[in-house]
Design brief:
The complex is a heterodimer of chains A (about 325) and B (about 400).
Chain A (H helix, E strand, L loop, with lengths): L6 H17 L2 H4 L11 H9 L18 H13 L6 H12 L7 H4 L4 E5 L8 E3 L6 E5 L5 E4 L1 H10 L1 E2 L10 E3 L7 E2 L3 H36 L1 E2 L2 E2 L4 H29 L6 H27 L10 H14 L3 H11 L1
Parallel strand pairs in A: 1-3
Antiparallel strand pairs in A: 2-6, 3-4, 4-7, 5-6, 8-9
Chain B lengths: L6 H17 L12 H17 L18 H13 L9 H14 L2 H12 L5 E4 L15 E5 L2 E12 L6 E7 L10 E7 L5 E6 L8 E12 L3 E2 L5 H6 L11 H20 L6 H28 L5 H24 L23 H14 L6 H12 L6
Parallel strand pairs in B: 1-4
Antiparallel strand pairs in B: 2-3, 3-7, 4-5, 5-8, 6-7
The chains are: A alpha+beta (about 325), B alpha+beta (about 400).
Amino acid sequence: MDFELSVDQVALAELVRVIVAGRFPLERVRRAEGGRQVVDRDDWAALAEAGVFSLTLPEDTGGTGLGLADAAVVYEELGRGLVPGPLVASHLGARLAAAGATDVGGAADGSLIVGALLTPADGQPWLAEHLDSLDALVVRGPGDRLAVAGSKEVANLVSAAHPVERSLDPLTPLSVLAGAPAAEVIDDPAAVAEWDLWWRVLTGALCVGIAEATCHLAVGHASQRRQFGRAVGSFQAVKHLCADMLVRAEAARAAVLAAAVTVDQPGVGDAIRAAAGGALLAAEAAVANARACVQVFGGMGFTWEVPVHLYLERARFLSASLGPHDVLAGIVADRL
Amino acid sequence: MDLRYTADEERFRDELRRWLEATVPTLPKKPPSDDWPARRRYDTHWQRLLHDAGWAGIGWPDEGGGRGASPVEQLVYAEELARAHAPYVGVNFVGLLHAGPTIAVEGTPEQRARYLPPILRGEEIWCQGFSEPDAGSDLASLRTRAERDGDHYVINGSKTWTSHAEVADYCELLVRTGAEDSRHRGITWLALSMDTPGIDVRPMRTIAGTTEFAELFFDDVAVPVANRLGEENDGWRVAMVTLGFERGTAFVGELLQSIELLRSLRDVARAAGTTSQTARIGHLGAELDALWALTRRNVSQAARDGVPGIGGSVFKLAFSELRQRLADLGTELAGTASLAWDELEGGPWSLTAGGPGNAELVDTWVNSFSRTIAAGTSQIQRNIVAERILGLPKG
């Protein structure tokens, strides 16, 4: 038993960190704020080249044959860097294609951008993220349904959709669809079960990255900002906010990584329970830490210019993409 | 990252599990919590059984006569004992987990030979004389005075929060030998025989109704200089060496017991047809699972680096507050039955088999309040996390 990152996993995280720093510095990413097409095709191809969408695919289908734990390490870094785009959907789309369930094979090499959509509850709008950038759209739900809309259907969706003028996250454009998209159902219960499990773990990993990034930002600000002749981080009221941020991030990180390893090594525990619980805690940690980060930044945290709010908004999107949290908690309660 | 156990670790687990399966059912009935002599007999009997089967001092360094188990083996050990519902370490706590390991590292060969074997065999019980009425979180301000008089120290002062003092044979005592304001630099570690004249033990009744702690008063108590561990005025460092043996496994038993408690609360809610608490139950389950994952991470870090990770404070902070919320949930599910320590006829626990029952639940609830105070309050833990891990400036 060794629940620390392996040497290879440390190197993988470092590789992704370098790409994020080079390709996605926030001042550059923010130029696309409010646009309909936030995802840059060259950047997407660079992510694909680093293996972001293919690292867990079997080697005979052009992948690297790594596990979900390795992917979680990568997605934690992407979350930390606020990299925009349908990151989880494209990875899972590539896996569906590699398994022969659908033909969005270009997802693995970044030539196709695959999005995903959770069927809304009754009375809620059909909201699609990054629709204008997509080549395919996976629709999850209702019930156990998993279906894929190809490029033709997506083009029809785009022309019939109503663009949302102001998305809460300025780096995640939204469209309101006219209704349920036409999509080809994947008739494979195992594929649906895997989709949910991996969706929760990888979305959880993005959330962990946000929880860690906002903790780091808050600590940096609290160490620099001086009032009453001393760093505000020397006041216990601020210190304790930061300590709670670390506790949330560490617990969520352990939970999400344990869930990922449990998917890879089924004998060690209940992967469904671990993935639901890890996603739940990670989403909460991301939102709570981003909120605390705004608080630690004080008035500066409430300005558009300082990027702290972007973490809060992305955290809300990721949290919502997991579906109702009561469902996640209910899964854990049932499987205790 | 690998959560599978190696063949050696599995062999260790199997051997221990077989022994526990054969031994735990033979134990006598647990004594009442307010009968200290009976508790001493029960706990020391268990310790003797562990010793004779080669399971005593599992995490002690080899030089102390321990098993020198790896951090992962220590985790497996704690996990198996919890799963087998084996007795808690009880009155052996200070000897096995603090004084003993300290002596194993800092003691002379004579001191090791004198003190360690009786601890491992469950023959001598230790208590801890660290905290004072005016030195709690700020332990380095302690004032109990030791004056050198030939080959003895003469002790005057008082200690508090001393567990098991009524049945202890020895006390690991921190005393002031330096100037009044010398703080960490003027403290000395002494092994005090509790038979020594001049010691007054006054039990304190806790909000749980039992006498878990005592105050100790010292009136010209003479301790041989030979009972000093390490150098004079070096006692702070001596007392802290055991922190190096903390592998992140201290709370494993209570953590796994908490998951069992939550499961039985879930069953009670189900049997009563209550769905309003399902999300709360699941949330607590997710948190407990996360802390079990964090435990395995902390242990892995200790296994790799030889030193415990900084994760201990993170874990302690999260778990102590979680434990209170778990107990709150239990009292809410139990309803008015949780207003009594007695087992009541027809209460919610009658709905399922194997639930905790009123007395245990109320006991868990009341005792949960000590978790955010003992071994460093949550406020001090937050300072430690913020300053030592996050690097924020001291206030």
